[in-house]
């Protein structure tokens, strides 16, 4: 074979590569990969999700076991809980000493300190069916006002926050997609009815209704989730309906219909996959909003109830005491903020990736 | 091009709520797709006549309000437990007397009719939890506080949001741009109830610059207003700044700006007279949602900074099952939101050159 023909073969190869079709998903993924912030967001979201899924097998303390001696311990990598506890008691006694103009510990104080030393050495306690040398624990992120490990509470709080965010989004997207596509495709009276309901509900003050629902039907994870999902499918329904209307007269739908495809098949196999891009984008941006709303409710005392926690309730618990124990505020707040950041970056990245029009480079 | 055909109108997320029943877009443009949504493809649209439009929109407010009242009335009443159910039960006779006093012994539908009639006359009824006080009293004493905080916050958000948005757009990729857009990202991602306490921790507890809580009528004076207002304004400042930046950039690339520059106008005149007018539209349409957010956000901010506003009563009454107080606060909040949306829509239809009147 001559060099000329090899060259020609190569160029045809290149041509063929150029015309090879790229699916919307792969195209979007390629664009997403170029977006550093979005990829950073994706990594953070994956890590958070993995940590909260594997929480039960991670080597962390129990999130609900109270060790009252360990209340309000500051975060420390090096010192054990016992040492911190001892220091706190001693510092307090020193303060009393100063106030009372003494220079030595009184007998009872000395006895108490000795007792603490003794207990640090030997005391064990049963936690989750295991005998634990409780005072040799280390609390990397400190403890809360009831002596529970902040790290564990943040991880389990994140589990609940993320779960509410993802499941809530999923439910609201499902309701919205089904109703929106039916309204858009069937049209006529059905459309009018569904969209009227949406219009009216859209005019209602959203969070106020959720707050009433929560206050009236009691605080539980399930209620948070139901109340939020019930009122947040509206936008999805509108988006999907708009997309379906703009698609339903296109050639590929006509082709499917002429081949005898049923309405359900056309909607679920042909129309919805075509609106998937915008639904994914919407869902990604919806998750942080859901998490914020859940935390908002928990902050008002209307969300998750003890001993369970969510990021919002952790922040809410900490606000009252933040002058003395700022770590109880900052760590959950930081955990939540990082996740919301990541989710927003990912959502923005997906929006740019899925939408070829977007000149959005914000 | 495969299935993601370029010519298909792409419906953006923020403009989706504005899609009317016939599939066309209503006036709006806070569009994250920078206007590459249905709106652009549909082109201009025509509204029958200004007065007619305003009247129709105004009359439309009442059914919405009625739905809100009815829905919240029945949600509250079907829930188990009432305002008088305590841990220690009241004697049967006492309970019956109390219920008779507040007409709780009548059939629900009669109560509903009675309530609706009272509301139309402007009487929101007596509080069930606090004796000798009626709901009107609470609302008149606390609403001005909430309104004041809300208006101040919205003004801060608007002034700084528009200002920094324009600055970052005309000095794209400068330090101002990066700094204000980074702050804006923080404002969008970090919830109010994190910003509030963190501000409070540093500004009042650590550095002692501002009082932790209180209100302007107290001994601390106006400084108490600073932190609640900043906290409440921050997310909306962030959103408006981003919106403004994107829309100014888009307007700067349009033909009429090139024409204005070609005429030899001074750059400041171009910015203030031509760019701003076109670029403000998305911000105006965002005012409705922003105000709604400020109203709900104020509930949290009032909680954090102990502001004696309506939000306090709203949360408390929801806990107490104080039927009339819940209803009263919901009605007042809804009226504010509905009127605000109405005003924004009207302003918008004046400003948008794409809307023409027959």
Describe the structure.
The complex is a heterodimer of chains A (362) and B (358). Chain A is mainly alpha-helical. Among the domains of chain A are: 76-136; 166-310, MetI-like fold. Chain A has 14 helices and two strands. In chain A, strands 1-2 form a two-stranded antiparallel sheet. In chain A, helix 6 packs antiparallel against helix 7 (188-203), helix 10 packs antiparallel against helix 12 (263-299) and helix 12 runs antiparallel to helix 14. Chain A is elongated, with a radius of gyration of 29 Å. Chain B has 358 residues and is mostly helical. Chain B has twelve helices and two strands, in the order H-E-H-H-H-H-H-H-H-H-H-H-H-E. A two-stranded parallel ribbon of chain B has the order 1-2. The longest helix of chain B has 39 residues, at 267-305. Chain B starts with 37 loop residues before the first helix and ends with a strand. In chain B, 39% of the residues are buried. Mean pLDDT of chain B is 76; it is low at 1-48. Classes of the chains: A mainly alpha (362), B mainly alpha (358). At the A-B interface, helix 7, helix 8, helix 10, helix 12 and helix 13 of A face helix 2, helix 6, helix 7, helix 8 and helix 10 of B.
**Based on the structure given, which CATH architecture of the domain at 166-310 in chain A is correct?**
Orthogonal Bundle
| Fraction in beta strands of chain A | under 5%
Unreliable spans of chain B: 1-48
Our measurement of the CA-to-CA distance between the termini of chain A, rounded to an integer number of angstroms, reads 53 Å
Average pLDDT level of chain B: 76
Helical residues, percent of chain B? 55-70%
Biggest beta sheet summary of chain A: 2 strands, antiparallel
Shape of chain B: globular
CATH topology of the domain at 166-310 in chain A: MetI-like fold
- For the secondary structure, the number of strands of chain A is 2
Order of helices and strands of chain B: HEHHHHHHHHHHHE
Percentage beta strand of chain B:
under 5%
Radius of gyration of chain A, Cα only, in angstroms?
29 Å
Structural class of chain B, by secondary structure, is: mainly alpha
Please state how the strands of the largest beta sheet of chain A are arranged side by side: 1-2
Unreliable stretches of chain A, pLDDT < 50, 5 or more residues?
358-362
What global shape of chain A is seen? elongated
Oligomeric state of the chains present here: heterodimer
Specify which chain pair forms the largest interface.
Answer: A-B, 73 and 63 residues
Radius of gyration over C-alpha positions of chain B, nearest whole angstrom: 25 Å
């Amino acid at each position: 074979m001559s060099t000329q023909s090899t060259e020609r073969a190569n160029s045809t190869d290149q041509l063929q590569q150029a015309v090879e079709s790229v699916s919307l998903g792969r195209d979007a993924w390629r664009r997403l990969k170029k977006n550093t912030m979005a990829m950073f967001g994706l990594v953070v979201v994956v890590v958070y999700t993995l940590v909260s899924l594997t929480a039960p097998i991670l080597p962390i303390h129990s999130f609900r076991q109270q060790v009252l001696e360990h209340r309000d311990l500051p975060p420390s990598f090096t010192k054990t809980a016992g040492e911190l506890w001892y220091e706190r008691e001693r510092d307090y006694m020193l303060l009393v000493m100063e106030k009372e103009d003494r220079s030595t510990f009184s007998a009872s104080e000395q006895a108490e300190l000795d007792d603490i030393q003794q207990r640090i050495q030997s005391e064990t306690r049963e936690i989750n069916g295991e005998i634990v040398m409780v005072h040799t624990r280390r609390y990397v992120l400190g403890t809360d006002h009831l002596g529970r490990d902040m790290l564990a509470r943040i991880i389990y709080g994140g589990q609940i926050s993320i779960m509410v965010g993802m499941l809530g989004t999923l439910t609201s997207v499902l309701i919205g997609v089904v109703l929106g596509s039916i309204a858009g495709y069937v049209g006529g009276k059905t459309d009018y009815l569904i969209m009227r309901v949406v219009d009216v509900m859209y005019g209602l003050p959203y969070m106020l209704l959720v707050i009433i629902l929560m206050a009236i039907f009691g605080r539980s994870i399930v209620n948070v989730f139901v109340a939020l999902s019930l009122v947040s499918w509206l936008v999805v329904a509108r988006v999907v309906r708009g997309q379906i209307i703009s698609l339903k007269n296109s050639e590929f739908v006509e082709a499917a219909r002429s081949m005898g495809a049923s309405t359900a098949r056309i909607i679920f196999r042909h129309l919805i996959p075509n609106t998937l891009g915008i639904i994914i984008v919407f869902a990604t941006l919806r998750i942080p909003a859901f998490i914020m709303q859940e935390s908002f409710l928990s902050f008002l005392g209307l969300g998750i109830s003890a001993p369970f926690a969510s990021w919002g309730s952790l922040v809410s618990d900490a606000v009252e005491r933040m002058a003395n124990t700022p770590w109880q505020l900052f760590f959950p707040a930081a955990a939540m903020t990082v996740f919301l950041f990541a989710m927003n970056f990912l959502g923005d990245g997906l929006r740019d990736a899925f939408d070829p029009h977007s000149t959005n480079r914000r | 091009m495969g299935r993601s055909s370029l010519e298909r109108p792409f419906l953006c997320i923020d403009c989706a709520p504005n899609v009317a029943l016939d599939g066309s877009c209503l006036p709006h443009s806070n569009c994250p797709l920078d206007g590459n949504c249905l709106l652009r493809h549909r082109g201009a649209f025509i509204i029958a006549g200004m007065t007619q439009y305003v009247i129709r929109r105004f009359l439309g407010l009442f059914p919405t309000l009625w739905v809100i009242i009815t829905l919240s009335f029945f949600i509250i009443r079907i829930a188990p437990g009432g305002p008088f159910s305590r841990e220690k039960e009241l004697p049967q006779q006492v309970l019956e007397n109390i219920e008779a006093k507040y007409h709780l012994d009548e059939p629900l539908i009669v109560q509903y009719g009675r309530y609706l009639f009272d509301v139309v006359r402007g009487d929101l009824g007596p509080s069930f939890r606090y004796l000798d006080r009626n709901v009107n009293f609470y609302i008149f004493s606390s609403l001005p506080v909430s309104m004041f905080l809300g208006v101040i916050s919205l003004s801060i958000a608007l002034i700084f949001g528009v200002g920094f948005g324009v600055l970052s757009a005309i000095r794209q990729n400068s330090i101002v741009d990066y700094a204000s857009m980074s702050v804006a990202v923080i404002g969008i991602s970090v919830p109010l109830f994190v910003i509030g306490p963190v501000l409070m921790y540093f500004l009042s507890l650590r550095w002692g610059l501002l009082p932790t809580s209180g209100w302007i009528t107290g001994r601390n004076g106006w400084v108490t207003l600073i932190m609640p207002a900043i906290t409440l304004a921050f997310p909306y400042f962030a959103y408006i700044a981003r919106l403004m930046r994107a829309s100014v950039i888009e307007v700067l690339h349009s033909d009429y700006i090139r024409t204005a520059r070609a005429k030899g106008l001074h750059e400041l005149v171009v910015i203030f007279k031509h760019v701003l007018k076109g670029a403000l539209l998305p911000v105006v349409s965002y005012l409705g949602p922003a105000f709604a957010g400020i109203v709900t956000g104020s509930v949290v901010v009032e909680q954090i900074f102990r502001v004696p506003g309506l939000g306090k009563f709203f949360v408390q009454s929801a806990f107490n099952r104080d039927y009339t107080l819940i209803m009263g606060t919901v009605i007042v909040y809804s009226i504010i939101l509905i009127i605000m949306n109405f005003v924004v829509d009207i302003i918008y239809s004046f400003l948008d050159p794409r809307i023409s009147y027959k």
